[in-house]
Amino acid sequence: MAVRLPEHHRDQDSRDVVKLVMGLVATIAALVLSLLVASASSSYNVQRSELQSLSANVILLDRLLVAYGPVANDVRDRLRESVRLSHDQIWSPSGAQPMALDRVPAFIIELEGLSPKTDA
Q1: How far is the C-alpha of 120 from the C-alpha of 12, rounded, in Å?
Q2: Where are the domains of the chain?
């Protein structure tokens, strides 16, 4: 086996420098990976929290429409349909689908058209 490095590159000091540099590279790689995982976790937690809040608001709106009475049944049906369409656009088997942000959902138009018959 032929030795290609000169003797002064194979002494203990050179080996120690190489070990230190390898340790430094490994530490930086671990730091970058941990920051990447932390960022992904933070993003996931924010999205989960927003989805839970949105879900709670939809359920609250549905309960308020139940309390409004049978007049609001059509609005509740449109609300359910809008939630189902949004779910299918976000979690479709082929991936997220683009949404038309310029159109107003039908249940909002019907919701605005409701007029109370009593103070309750």
Answers
A1: 87
A2: 15-68, 70-113
